[in-house]
């Protein structure tokens, strides 16, 4: 399967300046993908784009991964309705190291170039930047960008010049990488399309060269209609210190039937024949959740390694069959009576009191395999608190 066919089949095609997607098959590009270190870990929402880049690598294209130490100090206004809190240099450095390590894991030893835009953005002379770069950006075009228009329009909370200038810096990144690394393609998520075009236009105006942009769609949970990557307990992180390996595995195991086939294409490296086989078996017996089990194992293997994926798989099977495992998440609370709603929130089985109340009212809460219907429960060390069929926390 060619790269253009692979990307199309997996659902990774959104917008591109390429005249024909098959150009990806006939020419080897040097592409770059950027991520700002707003945290020291990626979330599963970021993982799809990372795996898309992995397919470019697997098909022989060169990849430059940019970790935005410079732009991370400014903050991308896209997707935010108010100003971000500025990070310190120490925070940015810590975050950069965490994200870079995760990409090395996801890319599984593949050869790529890692750069940090702080190295060149920190040396910019303001007057030269305004004359040489700012001169090529029209205010009319910038004000029409969705994320800027939303912030300055009626009901918007405004935008500082700091965040307003973000798109100029990202355009300058593309120019710098084009001139110094031969980059001629930037890939991004759909929400970064406008910023990516800034670089394409800037390079054309400054050098006369034609470069391209390519975006993948944002992954949406079909069951909720919301941007993918959240659970009842909040964000799902790739860092096991933020989201345990078991919780990570359980997140994928809990995928809804409507979305699981799409997730297999986005988030695993299984080939078309392998996924078709999984889907056929799943359709024959949806209650057996074969697709979810394969998905959970394969994604956990990519992010945490095969040994951890196997351990999480065995732990999940043990719990499902009434057993236990050292990987089972735990929560430390005092022995005795607790308000059920508060206990669910503290255990990470619900994101809010209202969510916990809904689960309780719907009969979805169990303690030691017995349905909980009361507002108050008595717990002891070793008790198993459960929501639904596949979410467990052991009381310590």
* Strand composition percent: 15-25%
Helix content: 40-55%
CATH architecture of the largest domain: 3-Layer(aba) Sandwich
Query: What is the CA-based Rg, rounded?
Result: 23 Å
- Which CATH class of the largest domain is shown? Alpha Beta
**Widest sheet: strand order?**
1-6-5-2-3-4
What does the oligomeric state look like here?
Answer: single chain
What is the number of independent domains? Answer: 3
Uncertain spans: none
What's the story with the biggest beta sheet? 6 strands, mixed
CATH superfamily of the largest domain: HUPs
Structure description:
The chain starts with a helix and ends with a strand. It is globular. The chain has 18 helices and 17 strands. By secondary structure, it is α/β, with parallel strands linked by helices. Helices cover 45% and strands 15% of the residues. The strands form five sheets. Strands 1-6-5-2-3-4 form a six-stranded mixed beta sheet, with helices on both faces. A hairpin with a 3-residue loop joins strand 16 (384-387) and strand 17 (391-395). It folds into three domains: 3-218, 3-Layer(aba) Sandwich (Rossmann fold), CATH 3.40.50.620; 226-320, Tyrosyl-Transfer RNA Synthetase (Orthogonal Bundle), CATH 1.10.240; 330-395, Structural Genomics Hypothetical 15.5 Kd Protein In mrcA-pckA Intergenic Region, Chain A (Roll), CATH 3.10.290.10. Helix 10 crosses helix 11 (193-207), helix 12 (245-253) packs across helix 16 and helix 15 (290-304) runs antiparallel to helix 16 (306-320). The model has no long low-confidence stretch (mean pLDDT 86).
